[in-house]
Amino acid sequence: MEFNGKDDYLARWIHGISAIVLGFAGVILLRFFGDYNRWDLRLNLAGFAALLLAIRCAWYAISGRGNPNND
Questions:
Q1: Angle between helices 9-31 and 40-63 (to 10 degrees)
Q2: Does a structural domain hold residue 59?
Q3: CA gap 20, 57 in Å, rounded
Q4: Looking at the domain assignment, is residue 52 inside a domain?
Q5: Residue 36 placed within a domain
Q6: Spacing of C-alpha 35 from chain mean position
Q7: Which domain does 34 fall in, by range?
Q8: Rounded to whole angstroms, how far apart are CA atoms 64 and 69?
């Protein structure tokens, strides 16, 4: 079993759970807190960043390639 490789199932489970949590956080930031005020741009950027990180974590959890912690 290699550390942070394709066969590291503990890290892949943790990244899968993190992807779900970050996905929910990104959707909540974009949907509910993105009304038109001075915080709009910052909350939208935070929501997009959370969704991007969720996609990268989910990709690693599913395929075992492209670990976001190595970048």
A1: 150
A2: yes
A3: 9
A4: yes
A5: yes
A6: 23
A7: 9-64
A8: 12
Residues 29, 15: Cα–Cα separation, whole Å: 20
Mean pLDDT calculated for residue range 47-69: 87
Q: Summarize the confidence of residues 11-18 as an average pLDDT.
A: 90
Q: Answer yes or no: is 1 within a domain.
A: no
Domains: count for the chain: 1
pTM (global) more than 0.70: yes
Amino acid at 17: I
Dihedral of the alpha carbons of 22, 26, 29, 30, in degrees to the nearest 10: -170
The tokens describing 22, both together, are 């970050």
Confidence of residue 24 (pLDDT cuts 50, 70, 90): very high
pLDDT band (50, 70, 90) for residue 36: low
Is residue 55 pLDDT above 90, yes or no?
yes
